[in-house]
Amino acid sequence: MRWRKHTNRIIGFLVLLPSIVLVGIFVYGFIGRTVWASLSDWGQDPAQALALDPVTRFVGLDNYRQLFTGVIDGRFRQDMVSTLFFTVFFIAGCLLVGLLLAILIDHKPKGEGLFRGVFLFPFALSFVVTGTIWRWLLQPNGGVNRLPELVGLPRGEFAWLTSKRQIWRFDWNDLSVWLPLVLAAALAAMALAAFRAGRRRRGALALAGTALLGIAAVLGRSVTLLPFPEQHGFNLAFIGIVLAAVWQMAGYTMALYLAGLSGIPEELREAAITEGAGGWALYTRIILPLMAPITLSAMIVLGHISLKIFDLVFAMAGPDNSWTDVPALLMYITTFRGNQFAKGAAIGVILLLLVAVIIVPYLRWQLREGSRE
Amino acid sequence: MMRRVWLSAVLGALFLAGAPARAQEKLEIFSWWAGDEGPALKALIDQYAAKYPTIEVVNSTVTGGSGVNARAVLKTRMLGGDPPDSFQVHAGQELIGTWVVANRMEDLTPLFKSEGWMAKYPPGLFRLLSAQGGIWSVPVNIHRSNVMWYVPANLDKWGVGPPSSWDQFLATCKTLQGKGLAHPLALGENWTYVHLWESVALGVLGPDGWAALWSGKMKFTDPMAVKVWDTFGKVLACANPDASGLSWQQAVDRMLKGEAAFNIMGDWAAGYMATTLKLAPGHGFGWTASPGTGGVFMMLSDSFGLPKGVKHRDAALKWLKLLGSREGQDTFNPLKGSIAARLDSDPLKYNAYLQSAAKDWKSDRVVGSLAHGAVAPESFGSQFGTVMEIYLAGMNAQAAASAAQAIADQVRLGK
Lengths: 373, 415
Prior knowledge:
By secondary structure, chain A is mostly helical. In chain A, about 70% of the residues lie in helices and about 5% in strands. Chain A has a single domain (about 80-370), classed as MetI-like (MetI-like fold, Orthogonal Bundle). Chain A has 16 helices and 2 strands. In chain B, helix 2 packs antiparallel against helix 14, helix 9 runs antiparallel to helix 10 and helix 16 runs antiparallel to helix 17. The longest helix of chain B has 26 residues, at about 190-215. Chain B has 2 domains: about 25-145 and about 300-370, Periplasmic binding protein-like II (D-Maltodextrin-Binding Protein, domain 2, 3-Layer(aba) Sandwich), CATH 3.40.190.10; about 145-300 and about 370-410, 3-Layer(aba) Sandwich (D-Maltodextrin-Binding Protein, domain 2). By secondary structure, chain B is an alpha/beta fold. Chain B has 17 helices and 15 strands. The chains are: A mainly alpha, B alpha/beta. The interface between A and B is large, with 38 and 44 residues.
């Protein structure tokens, strides 16, 4: 009997081995290779950039330092700001529209199946197709801008993807103060929550972190990131891209919420209604709190899509429209046009870290939930 | 090293799986000529096939304007140790700064000597093609970058003539704006800004100053070079504000429709107007050198080179011989809408615009284009867009000049 168990384990291991090896090489091996490249000067010397056996030097974090504080990498910094705004608006848009559609369909209107299909359909398209369609719709002289004419209003004037306007501008140099402050505020909130929940040790740790970051913010005032002021902000050209992305992914969040809504037992709703909860209270007090895990999952999925977004922007605005640039596009251009392989690798690593910040805590949480069950 | 081993292992496996057992001689040509330019390439390939019927020609085309996608694919292949037998590349620094300095190309000087080509091309072209004591590619065609287009009848109507310096241009612009033409200059998407900039820079700096900029003798922060940005800003004030949403063709259309008076674009615009729109050169549209650049021919050229370690070197050399020959160039260029790089092409095969360009090509001073890869390596050219953004964001000439110099230092321009 014990022998059987043993062979089972060996067979299990052997079956898994090929995928372990392949994933090890083609995922983790290449991540390692990219990180290594990002710490080198590969591409700075044109004679070595595309040589058959490039000789590169180890330069430590110099590529990263340049990206965040170098004179000529302002485009990367704007891309980071843009991707942040894009992520926030994209996630918020998808959640709101998805939830609204799900609630509407959950009321079982006539032709419920049809509507469900219609709303889910854009999700079946590829981003390139979506991008091409919306590129046409958002031409400044046609499409969406002409809609008001149908009801006799003057046509829209917004330039959409070709807009060069920027709002909510701030100086990149101020980040050395603001970033620690924002993080400190977040940690302080965590500390408060932990103390309330009676978890002292965790609360104390968070409080210590808050204090440290507060000191960092004070020190940050004397740090100059750039030798000159550099304004970044939200490019209005992104509105069009958010629109297209929400159009595509809202159906997906709708499907997630629908699954969640149908999982709420009918008795619960009836009980709430008998207790006197009206339509609004039923949703805000009972149903939405129950949807929290779904909202979290949706945020994770949408968040990593938006951080890595490439194809939609490429199809909608092309790689050269700097007003709609995102880090993934810049990585491609830096690497394959500019031959700056090390810098391109550094952008790639930064993207990986950003996504990891979202994904890893979620995976850990999922694993813990799984083992509890 | 690891990367190469892996890539060749993967490619090798694919090759073994897919290759037919037939051992026929082959030639793989890598280019970005598809669509409008496809027929010209096909005519060349047909000519090659008629000459060497035993060689099978594989036409690997990666589409995408001016080769942005093709170059990315090419880099992956070259890094993977799988070079195509011959690839298209903009003649000059785009080839030299990327591939020659990396020691990946064969010197073609022996080919030029044995074919007697040294006397058949203008000496100014050899200056742009050569580096490290060698000639690195065979130019097939020549396009001109510094051309200003207009509609003669429209200019008569407004009572202005084509300006011959940028100062005159700005004065003409004022006059036209006074007559209700809000944006006398038609401009298109991002890269056409750089295209306009190089005409302004050539006009302000002159051919010697322009050359000094790229050899590193003149810094971008030099007061003259900063002045280029100032002039550029004034010129931009004459252009349409919605430029970044227009393709270069749409910008040309505006000029033709009389919504603008002038357009500065390379002479593929002549191909668009003459072939696609069926306008008569000289009547439907007119041209002159862009302001301040008369007597100077800012060229760009598509060329083919020979990478080291290709599989079918003999067939590739035969291809290059055809490309450099008079018959090859006179087959290709009338279809492509460009002129032959050779000085002895047959003018009767070309339309009126191309004949005039060919005449200038023989007599003018030849300089290279920035926007199209002749004078600066890719590492500079691809980042010049950032400089343009810095300028457009703040209209600050000094900031743009400093950024340009920072990039020039980083990529070791002119070294």
